[in-house]
Design brief:
298 residues; disordered N terminus
């Protein structure tokens, strides 16, 4: 049996089921930043990202082996490499580095641009031309986030902001390719093979990082690591890609509107952060801009 034989005929999901899966993915992702902050109590940023990738790859590998899933065809590995570089390694590393000096509420507002960035990448990838209204709303949303970041950072973009903007780009590319691949193979296989593809680099990175960064295990630190590995990286990506394949990237990105708001809530409940007045205002403004882009379509 070829990879195509096992991938193409996977059981279709109804729109309602796809919406539920995508919503579960958004919920899982909304906990990523607070969990990362917890994880940084025990691990350095490079160690945390490398170890979470290794653990997630081991979980994925166990499922792939147990179900005897064949290796994907060569033509799919280019897209899987984009998922690996953007979602498995790039986004976690850049956001973890940002969260060393940024609050989760600040990061949540900046990353709130992700649906917009993903929609732009999807438009380019599919060859569609978004309307003028789409681009005006997208630029307005970007302007809101940049103004918020500058205001919160004391008049200039901080290093954390630059990490977050970089994370937006690589994650949007990974989401777009992952959503495309989830149309030809089950979403969990997209995630699983991307994680396996990253495993040699993750293992090498973990060995080097753990040798240089001290480890101080705490309850919060271990819980944060477990969640970002099993919850965000594996489960979250699995249900997100599966749901996105069922309802499409534009509709799935609408659900992601709730992610920054949920993260703001978790930052208060789990981390005890105090929100600045600008954070919820900027978050709502970004949501309005994204809602306009959704109505404008491509």
């Amino acid at each position: 049996m070829t990879a195509q034989d096992s991938a193409t005929p996977h059981t279709p999901i109804a729109v309602g089921g796809g919406t539920l899966l995508a919503a579960l993915g958004v919920t899982a992702f909304s906990l990523t930043f607070p969990s990362t902050v917890w994880g940084l109590e025990s691990f350095g940023p490079w160690s945390l990202v490398a170890v979470r990738s290794v653990l997630a790859a081991l979980i994925a590998g166990a499922f792939l082996l147990a179900l005897r899933v064949p290796v994907p065809e060569r033509r799919h590995w280019g897209g899987l490499a984009v998922v690996c570089g953007g979602v498995v390694l790039g986004f976690p590393l850049l956001t973890t580095l940002a969260l060393e000096t940024s609050t989760t509420s600040h990061a949540a507002v900046v990353i709130g641009l992700l649906p917009l960035t993903t929609a732009a990448f999807a438009a380019v990838r599919t060859g569609r031309r978004p309307s003028r209204t789409f681009w005006l709303a997208a630029l307005a949303g970007a302007a809101v986030v940049i103004a918020f970041a500058v205001q919160q950072s004391g008049g200039a973009l901080s290093a954390a902001d630059l990490y977050l903007f970089g994370a937006l780009v690589v994650c949007a590319a990974g989401y777009t390719e992952g959503g495309r691949l989830a149309g030809v193979m089950p979403g969990w296989q997209v995630v699983g093979w991307a994680l396996i593809g990253c495993l040699p680099l993750s293992v090498g990175g973990a060995a080097v990082a753990l040798a240089f960064e001290p480890v101080r295990l705490t309850g919060h630190g271990v819980a944060g690591l477990v969640w970002v590995a099993a919850g965000s990286t594996f489960f979250g990506l699995y249900v997100w890609y599966r749901g996105m394949a069922a309802i499409g990237i534009p509709k799935a990105s609408q659900l992601q509107l709730a992610q920054p708001v949920l993260t703001l809530v978790w930052s208060v409940l789990l981390l005890g952060e105090h929100l600045t007045p600008a954070a919820p205002v900027a978050a709502v403004a970004v949501l309005v801009c994204i809602a306009v882009t959704q109505r404008a379509g491509t």
